[in-house]
Each structure stands twice: as C-alpha cells, then as structure tokens.
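Write out the 3D structure for:
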Amino acid sequence: MQRRTLSIQEILQTAAECFMEQGFHATTLDDVARRMGATKGRIYHYYASKVDLFFDIHRHGMALLFGAVEPAMQTPGNSMAVLEAMLMAHAKALLEHHAYESVVVQGVQLHRFGALTPAQRQVLDELIASRDRFELLFKQQMAVAKADGSLADLDISIAVKTVLGGLQWSLIWYRPEADTNAAARRRLAAKMVRTLVSGLHAR
C-alpha cells in the first residue's frame, strides 16, 4: 500500500495541538507522529528537530494574527471603531486558531525561561520581535484615538498590554472542542472586546 504524503499544514496543525495539550518540553516528535498515524521519520523529512517544528508553528501563528488584524485597520469609521475592529479580529483569530496561538504564548515563556542554544535563541528573538511589531499596530491606533480625544488619558503601552493580555487569557479558559460554530465564536469575541473596550473610552 502506498503511504499517504503528509502535508506541512497537517504536521503543523497536529503538532500545535500536541504542544497546546502537553507543553513544549513534554511533547516529542513521536507524540506528533503517533497522532498522525505516521512514523517519526516522515516528520524528519520536513523538520530536523522538535524545536524547528515549534518555531514554524510560532511563525505561522503570528502570520495568522497579522492576517486577521491588518485588514481590520482599514475599517471605516472613527479611531475607536478601527481599534475595536482590530481587537475583534484579534479575538476571533485567537478562538479560531486556538492551538497555534497557544504555541505563540508558549514561545514567549520559552524566550524568557527556556535553555536554548545560541542559534535557537536568535530565531526566537526574531519571533518575539514579530510579536512586538504586532503589538505596535495597537499602540499606534491607540495613539491616534488618544490624540483625537476618543481614548481616555491612559498609558498606551500599559493599556495595550492589558487589553491584548485580556484577550489572550482566552487561550487558557476557552475550550474549542466544545464550540465548533463560527457564529458562536464571533459572539464570544464580541463580548470579550466589548468588556475590554468599555474601559478605554474617554469619559
């Protein structure tokens, strides 16, 4: 019987689920292969190590976030409407790509506390720089809203970290296996954003 060819997308998705459930240190390439019904060698065809696979998931997770939020920056309306659309896009992406974004958060922890080789540290530094660029999108939009008086007189850096952190906490409590309905995810995202944005408006 001819073996089915594994796609990189399949490997990334399956590995992301393993890392989300077991964490970086506990997950092995054997775990990923077993879940796919494949051999570890077939994964090695694409990835030389678990770390390389983890980094690629992190990279793809960030691409998904940028792909969601950047179009939302073109939303018509005032500065707060644009900010709210960006936050809504971010929240939906977190819910829809739960496993990938969980790996992104693990990457931050690995950057802070993990024992890595210099080469691995350099790659992770680049991935963290991508997170900083993502955060900058929200800082710039909040600066616009603050300048036109629609945002409260807040420390923008703290406000962005607090709001994005509030959304990212859903990676801890959200259970995607219990909710496969896109409309339900949109409603949940809207409730999350509304709760956070209410504290940002100028009074």
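The CA atoms of residues 33 and 40 lie 5 Å apart.
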